[in-house]
Structure formats: C-alpha cells, structure tokens
User: What shape does this take?
Amino acid sequence: MIAKTKYIPDGKKELKELPILHYLDANFLYYPVTSARCPEGETCVRGGQFVKIGEVIGTRKGAFFEQPMHATVSGEVVGYEKRIDQSGKVVDCLIVKNDKKYDLHPSIKDRTDEEIDALSKDDFVNIVKEAGLVGLGGSAFPSYIKLNSKDPINVVIANGVECEPYLIADYSLMMNQPQEVIQGLIYAMKASGAPKGIIAIKKKYTEIAERLNFSL
Assistant: This one.
C-alpha cells in the first residue's frame, strides 16, 4: 500500500542530465477523424494517394467550429482502422504509411522577416486557424478562437513553470531553443494584439533566465 503524501520527490535533476533523443520514426501514422470537441469528421484523400507534410487530409466537424487535419509525414494513404484515441475512445483513424522522405507540401513555405512583419493580427489568426493549432491542456480548444477574443488581451504569458515533478520539456526547450521561445512569444503578442509578453519560470532556474536574457 502506498502511503498518502502531499509531496512528490523532484525527479528533474536526473532528467536534466539526459540528452534529447529523437524517437524512432513510425512506419504508420494513425489520424483520428474525430476528436473530443468534434464528434464528426470527413477525409479528403483516398486509398493509394500520396500525401506530403502539411497537406490537408480531412476536417473534423460537429462543433461550433471546424478543424483541419494535416499530414505530419509524407507517404501513402492505405486505408482506415478503428483505434483508441488519447481520450480512450475507439474512433475511426486514417492510416498513412510513412515513406520516411518527409517531403513538404507546396503550401508549406518559409516567410522572410519582412513578410512576417507585414502580417496583421487577422493574418496571424487565420494562419493559426488553417494550421489547426489547439491547446495542449487536453480539451484541444482551437487556439485561433482564443487569439480572436473580442475582449482586449493585455498580456501573453508563456508558462514555463512546469510544476510536474517528472517533466522537463519546457525546461529543455528554453535552455536549448531560447531564441525560438522568445520569437514565438512575439508572434503570439502580435496575433493577440497584446502589448506585453511574459515568460514565466521558477526562480531557482537562474540558468534559464540567463539564457533567455542573453538571447534578447
């Protein structure tokens, strides 16, 4: 029997010493046609068709919004199969066989700094909408709706506190890619119209503060 306690030992110290590894490339990718917020969905590709990274392969529907689905690998659409999704439900999934070439769809392109600077708030919101970006809190709420709030947004907070005792994803991101974190916050500020941005970290992580300040 496990004794009840309000304190869980911090396991971050050991994790921070481990290198960042890339997971083995999956041979097949399974894309749920529906989600917790979108109980309906349809695909726009057929068996035997080859798709590329970023290509729209379907749309999740049934809510007050629609959510595009994108291929995350290049490869062949091989059919459908019922699988268990992240919520534990059995749902229909589109299957793509990974050709491991990772070819990008023509719609995926880099923008110059000048092009990004010229984007308006509406442009940013539309980009986020078409990308199908959602929150990572579990409910998968569309990010573009939050950014397009009718109420003014005064500040955007990049929450890097990461209180979980065995997670260091945010820590590693800020330590290894501080410039990208800062740039992402700037984009979020422009997309939301917020005049102020904050990166929140634990006080004890002075090394992160130094890394971020150096990258400003």
